[in-house]
Design a protein that fits this description.
Blueprint (H helix, E strand, L loop, with lengths): L6 E5 L19 E6 L2 H5 L5 H20 L3 E5 L10 H12 L3 E5 L4 H14 L3 E4 L8 H9 L6 H12 L3 E2 L2 E2 L30 H13 L16 H22 L16 H6 L4 H13 L5 H25 L27 H13 L4 H15 L3 H11 L5 H12 L16 H7 L20 H12 L1 H4 L6 H9 L2 H24 L1
Parallel strand pairs: 1-2, 1-4, 2-3, 4-5
Antiparallel strand pairs: 6-7
Bound molecules: flavin-adenine dinucleotide, ligand DLZ and iron/sulfur cluster.
């Protein structure tokens, strides 16, 4: 009897969802699933050790789950002596093993990998069906249509369309609470107390322990520590953390979204980004659970709206921008910034307490919350004129949730303004006053946040003004920058020179340290 033709279904490391589009309609009897731990993916940037460990362990657990559900999975381990080390090489070997009639795959999350998938049909001489990734709410076509109609691509208007599309927090055609956005209620500093929410920690099981040993041995020269690894690596445990967040942290999320505290890495944040991005959690289901809490009177509107906006607004919007702008987006540099990123980004060893705290925690956990990424490490890199591509590579390698579709627009666009304002209407440049307002960092810093110049002055202060003046040609016409330029013009010349000299002295010290490194 003739055997029915096989379908080969490669599943990438950020496609760990049982409802993945490539699996839909497939017959377990005639489908061969292919999961590949490959050297190319583990080294295309120097990923934080915990990022590699998380993805490999989650892949191994997901393969076991798929097998339990009746699928046949070919699993290529990283230390397989026959491995070619690349997605394309491993698909080629699988085609050789199974002689499939066709390949079905869900689209990749990066231009780099998309180019590989696009080449397979010609390379293997069989039909390759690339399905859209419907774990996202907006399709590429929807985003393109929305963007085409506009001069400025502001997230807020896109977000309103996503509210209408999903029906989340809607009363008929109107937003619940009578307004779309409650962001102005979300700006409170926090105080540490014993009742603060804590994320769950998941002790490594045998599979994770084997992966941790592999990563420790093979990626010893990658940044970060494995010591505190306690991430969930299954959908089941990710759902437990989701529930922990909904029960204990969500209520404070809105109020304290921008707060930062020494020794408190997670505050009221969800820590769900690694699971959402790898496919262990469903973003829409999470938003519906948040809405349910709001409708049941358990959380205030500013919290529910603020959280849902991050997911169906920002997360979807940055993905839309990534695919719309194309692979060249990674090389934009409107401010012509060229400085090397300081070595302390990989060690946390700096006397600036805000940076030491944000980077130290990143090296320990492969995670930092949004305002640390944006207003501490991001703003500092912006102010010193760090090369935005180098900044992008740092964020891509160092965070457990980093894939280019989400990381690049956040870094290059939102944080470094290297796209000239496609994502943000003005650069996220700020003096030390912002960090002082939103955190307790300055209280235990060797620098004085109130001083603008001199050896004890907070470096952010002079650097801020130096940035403003350096980019006058590009930024002075921006109405949202009018205030700083007016303030600068009102300063007397002696003050202006003192500030610029102070910034120059700091930047010279940075450059000297970079040369010595
Ligand atoms: P929470 O504060 O609990 O927020 C809930 C969820 O909202 C997040 O899990 C995330 O899925 C979503 N979200 C919030 N803000 C954003 C945003 N700006 N863009 C996209 N999704 C958002 N997020 C990533 O997932 N991967 C990245 O590589 C990444 N790189 C970033 C780089 C920079 C320079 C900046 C400023 C932000 C970056 N973000 C990135 C966005 C954000 O910082 C993280 O999503 C968030 O800190 C993850 O922690 P959490 O799950 O506790 O988030
Ligand atoms: C990030 C990553 C790493 C470190 N390793 C693997 C791997 O070994 N196998 C795999 O399938 N995926 C890995 N990934 C995630 C991929 O890089 C990701 O799927 C692509 O970047 C597409 O978004
Ligand atoms: Fe950071 Fe300046 Fe505050 Fe020190 S004083 S923690 S460098 S903002």
């Amino acid at each position: 009897m003739e055997l029915p033709p096989l379908t080969l279904i490669p599943i990438l490391g950020d496609q760990l969802s049982l409802g993945l589009s490539s699996l839909r309609g497939a017959d377990p009897a005639t489908a061969r699933l292919l999961m590949m731990e490959v050297a190319d993916e583990t080294t295309y940037v120097r990923h934080h050790k915990q990022k590699i460990a998380f993805i490999l362990s989650a892949m191994r657990h997901h393969a076991a789950l798929l097998r339990d559900q009746g699928w046949t999975v070919d699993y290529v381990a990283l230390d397989d002596p026959d491995s070619t080390g690349s997605f394309t090489g491993e698909v080629a070997r699988a085609v050789g093993r199974h002689d499939p009639a066709r390949i079905v795959v869900t689209e990749a999350g990066e231009w780099r990998v998309r180019a590989m998938l696009d080449a397979w049909e010609t390379l293997f001489g069989i039909p390759v069906e690339i399905r859209s990734d419907d774990r996202f709410i907006a399709t590429h076509a929807e985003f393109a249509t929305w963007a085409e109609e506009r001069k400025q691509l502001r997230m807020e208007y896109f977000y309103r369309d996503m509210r209408r599309k999903t029906g989340l927090l809607m009363d008929g055609k109107d937003p619940v609470g009578g307004q779309w956005n409650f962001d102005h209620d979300n700006r409170k500093p926090a105080k540490a107390d014993l009742l603060m929410p804590r994320p769950l920690r998941f002790p490594p099981d045998a599979i994770t322990q084997a992966v941790l040993a592999l990563v420790a041995e093979r990626f010893a020269d990658h940044p970060g520590s494995l010591d505190s690894f306690a991430w969930a690596v299954t959908a089941h445990d990710a759902e437990r953390q989701q529930k922990q967040f909904l029960d204990h942290a969500l209520a404070g999320f809105g109020d304290y979204q921008d707060a930062m505290l020494t020794g408190e890495p997670s505050l009221w944040h969800s820590l769900l980004s690694p699971y959402l991005n790898a496919g262990l959690l469903d973003p829409l289901a999470l938003c519906r659970a948040v809405e349910e809490r709001y409708r049941a009177g358990k959380v205030p509107i500013n919290t529910a709206e603020g959280f849902i906006r991050q997911i169906i607004g920002w997360r979807e919007y940055v993905r839309g921008i990534y695919w719309r702008e194309g692979p060249d987006y990674a090389h934009r540099n409107v401010l012509d910034a060229k400085r090397a990123l300081p070595a302390f980004y990989w060690t946390g060893e700096t006397d600036m307490h805000c940076l030491a705290e944000s980077i130290g925690q990143t090296l320990e956990n492969a995670h930092a919350h949004h305002i640390q990424r944006l207003m501490v490490t991001g703003t500092f890199a912006l102010l010193i004129g760090a090369d935005p591509h180098a900044v992008h590579l740092w964020y891509l390698e160092i965070y457990i949730d980093a894939y280019e579709w989400v990381e690049l627009p956040n870094t290059l666009g939102m944080s470094q303004f290297a796209d000239g304002g496609l994502l943000g209407s003005k650069p996220y440049a700020a003096s030390g006053a912002y960090i002082n307002k939103m955190s307790d960092y300055c209280k235990s810093c060797r620098y004085d946040v109130r001083q603008r110049t001199g050896p004890d002055a907070c470096p952010f202060n002079a650097l801020y003004w130096d940035f403003v003046v350096r980019h006058e040609d590009t930024l002075a016409r921006n109405p949202r920058m009018a205030m700083p330029y007016r303030t600068w013009a009102k300063m007397d010349e002696a003050t202006q020179s003192e500030i610029r000299d102070s910034a120059k002295a700091f930047l010279d010290r940075l450059d000297a340290a970079a040369e010595a490194y």
